[in-house]
Amino acid sequence: MIVTAGGPGDAALADGWHNSRLWPGRQGDLQWSRLVGNNEMDTGLLIANFFFAAPSVAALATNHGWFDALTGGAMIGANGGPLLIADPYWAGTEFGIYPPVVDYLSRNSGILREAVLLGGPVALPEGVKWPVGNAIAMPGHWQYSEVPPAPGAAARTRQESRDAAVPPSGLAVNRSGSVTTAGR
Fold first, then answer.
1. In terms of Cα–Cα distance, which of 156, 157, 109, 149 is closest to 132?
2. How far apart are CA 70 and CA 51, in angstroms?
3. pLDDT tens digits for range 76-86
């Protein structure tokens, strides 16, 4: 089975496939699942629904940079959960949460026990914890905790935060409930 995630990867594979540059003579034997959404947030949701039938943990990263998604994707994948993409400036919503992402969290609230917000308030506004926490737990019945940056990153994080006038932190929401933030 071949699974493509996102438009560029899908387009590259389609080009090779249709021009018989990939697996000559075997095209009929292979299954191809295309996980291509209208935007990066939809693609993230397609991947989450395809690979994670019952996640106990999920992570959110901003779509305004790749750092948190790259490292956070590996971390959350190793823990059996999906990486969801949030736009901190999503028009028409409070705290930048794309409504289908909140719907995904709500649909999986029976099994989700924790959500990790990657990048701290530099990447995602602190107010994001409310819609995320309320989606995976009874509204207002969840805990919020901050995870300090790794020791080697602390000096850099403090300097970056001073430059940006934002304190370093991380967030997590878990269902008993808690939201955790992993800061940078």
1. 109
2. 18
3. 999 999 999 98
Long-range pairs for 132-136 at CB < 8 Å and ≥24 separation? Answer: 132/60, 132/97, 132/102, 132/105, 132/173, 132/179, 133/173, 133/177, 133/178, 133/179, 135/102, 135/105, 135/106, 135/109, 136/105, 136/106, 136/108, 136/109, 136/112, 136/173, 136/174, 136/175, 136/177
Do the Cβ atoms of 147 and 180 come closer than 8 Å?
yes
CB–CB of 45/100 below 8 Å?
Answer: yes
Give strand pairing partners of 38: none
pLDDT in tens, 44-68: 999 999 999 899 999 999 998 888 9
| Helix, strand and coil in the chain, % to nearest 5 | 45, 20, 35
Q: What is the pTM of this model?
A: 0.75
Q: Exposure string (b/e) for 63-75, b if CB count within 10 Å is 16 or more?
A: beeeebbeebbeb
Residue 181 in 3-state DSSP?
A: strand
Q: Say if CB 115 and CB 91 are below 8 A apart.
A: no
Compare 76 and 89 and report the one with higher pLDDT. Answer: 76
CB 59 within 8 A of CB 85: no
Segments making up each domain of the chain, as ranges? 1-36, 38-183
